Amino acid sequence: MARKLPARSVSVPKPMGVNFCGEPVPVESGAVAHNLSMALMRNVASQNHLINFRRRAISQYFPIIEPILKKYRIPDDFKYLAVVESGLKADAVSHKGATGYWQLMPETADELGLKRNDKVDERKDLIKSTDAACRYLRILYRNLGSWTMVAAAYNGGIGRMQSHMKKQQESNYYFLSMNAETSDYLYKIVAVKEFFQFPGQYLTNNLMASAGNSYERERAEAIAKGLIPAEEPEPVGLAIEPKESLELRFETASVDSLLGTLSKLKASNAVLFKGDVEAELFKPGKVAIGQTWEFKLTKEVVIGDQKLGKNDVLYATVDDVDRQSGQIFLRSTKLVADADKKAYKLTLICLNPQTGLAGVPLPKADQLKPGGRTWMVGWKVL
């Protein structure tokens, strides 16, 4: 009897190197490491196709997607969401009716101003659908404050994500109990990102050798195995509207009804969500995107293996200001210890205790003045 060969293993990258949009993937958790390893293994199993697909994505599709993401201040990692959603196929259609590169549902496409009729479906237009998806992602971020949660909500729906967070008293995606599709979603995206950025870590020696061969040879091999069609369509959208003429459209009247729908999802009698850290504002900046605000911790707290002290300073950046709802979105990525004045990397979002989400009511005018009333807020570690 032939000896059964062990399965080829795929090592999970070091914890500090694994992130989505700069937000860490907690691979120090055994369950998270296992889930990511399984997603990477699935990539390895189809790596013949991925070598070829990666080359086409980088040369044909990403140069179109990346500038639009940048204009809307969407992290570059979201281009991998389109890879997972549709395989970058214009005519991809889900069983629920989601269509196009970004798998937008008909009603969402209508809300975002995309044309759909017998002659045209702009969900299949790479430029216009990416522009629409970015506007939708900005809306989700305004409500959730974490790019990881935005990606999860893109797949599972913001109402469902809020329900999970409320019932489970947990706002970290990786520790929420959800349906299999949404639970696996971020792992698929992170695995694709890892493969695209570091293909040499996941390819066998034979495939690494073939990667140096001509594009046509790889394409012929993939076609022979039925992994890609013989005729690959060009990206849709370039001839319809050149990039130079595409206007930047932030959340405006075209998505007002969508914003209204999202606002209704918040529970009127929500339980209180407790943050990991409590801090007091002591040096406010301007109420404008990109401004820095400084907060002091009110007591000692231990997060993981890191001990934070009373009066340690959080440096927070204003991510967004929603004048319509009267909310401000703050994110901290740096802490300076009061004891030794050393700076440490620590990513937190300012947490609304009523929703468990980012976005807290703007402080009153007297809370922004020196010697004014105290403004105390909770923070959640990402």
UniProtKB/TrEMBL annotation:
Residues 70-172 form the Transglycosylase SLT domain. Pfam families: SLT (PF01464). InterPro entries: Lysozyme-like_dom_sf (IPR023346), Transglycosylase_SLT_dom_1 (IPR008258). It comes from the Bacteria. Gene3D superfamilies: 1.10.530.10. Coiled coil: none annotated. Belongs to the transglycosylase Slt family. PANTHER family: MEMBRANE-BOUND LYTIC MUREIN TRANSGLYCOSYLASE C, SOLUBLE LYTIC MUREIN TRANSGLYCOSYLASE-RELATED. This is Lytic transglycosylase domain-containing protein. It comes from Larkinella punicea. The lineage of its organism: Bacteria, Pseudomonadati, Bacteroidota, Cytophagia, Cytophagales.
